[in-house]
Amino acid sequence: MAPDYVERALLAARDLIESTVVRHRRELAQDSWAGTALEKVPLAEVVDTLVDGAERTVQVVMSGGEEQTDAVCAALARPARGARRNVAVRLLCRERAASANAIRALVRTDPRCEIRVGDGGPTEALLIDGQLVYVRGGGGGRQATLVEDPATVRALELMFTGAWGNAVALAEYPRLGGRLCRDSARRILECLRTGHTDEVAAREMQVSLRTYRRYVAEIMRELGANSRFQAGVRAVEMGLLPSRP
């Protein structure tokens, strides 16, 4: 028993030391960024530093940009040290990000990662421990801000939580075929729900009857539906169609 107790104590001490060192590195990095426009600091450096210093939660809004995807996936793929071994990771992906192979690989390789697909939340953001948020806006300038004001951080976290609650788990997210865009899929699902005949729906979609029916079959397969009615129900459940009053 004694050796086990000593080993656990040593492991706990090592984790504490590692966490302290990582936190210190993050603080030093933040100090070094203070005199520089944050958008000029390489994104990979910022993400790596902040993720490495996390102790409880890492929450990310993924826009689908290649630079952000590479930086976040690389930071999460590195072996976790200290407290980061038990960090809960949530990735909220836009539709474009959901198709990235690196994102889907995280689900298979990192049990800490929970990934959902949806809209809402900040444009592109990294939330750490409910204490600070790194936000990048759109546009050519890609303005970046590190937010530490508690009230603002809380507001951004609430925005993330709301968007997360309305998002769909990646495993349940339908990929509705490579040639069929999401808007077209919604239009077809709406036609199915409203009871349009295939002929009328194909005419409205401006495609041939044969093509329309192929699209319907493709959507049903992706949704795992055995009937058109079931496809409509599942589409509402997954947020592809709004529920009716």
Describe the structure.
With 245 residues, this protein is of the alpha/beta class. Helices cover 53% and strands 13% of the residues. It has ten helices and seven strands. The chain has helices at 2-33, 43-52, 66-77, 95-98, 101-109, 150-165, 182-194, 198-205, 209-223, 228-237, and strands at 57-62, 88-93, 113-117, 124-128, 132-136, 144-147, 168-169. It has a seven-stranded mixed beta sheet, with helices on both faces. It is elongated.
Considering the chains and any ligands shown, give keywords for the structure.
245 residues; alpha/beta; 10 helices; 7 strands
Q: What's the count of strands?
A: 7
What is the helix fraction of residues, given as a range? 40-55%
Q: Please give the order of strands in the largest beta sheet.
A: 6-5-4-1-2-3-7
Briefly note the structural class of the backbone: alpha/beta
Helices and strands, in order, run as HHEHEHHEEEEHEHHHH
Largest sheet: 7 strands, mixed
Strand content: 5-15%
Overview in brief:
The chain is built from 10 helices and 7 strands.
Outline the secondary-structure elements:
Layout: H1 2-33, H2 43-52, E1 57-62, H3 66-77, E2 88-93, H4 95-98, H5 101-109, E3 113-117, E4 124-128, E5 132-136, E6 144-147, H6 150-165, E7 168-169, H7 182-194, H8 198-205, H9 209-223, H10 228-237
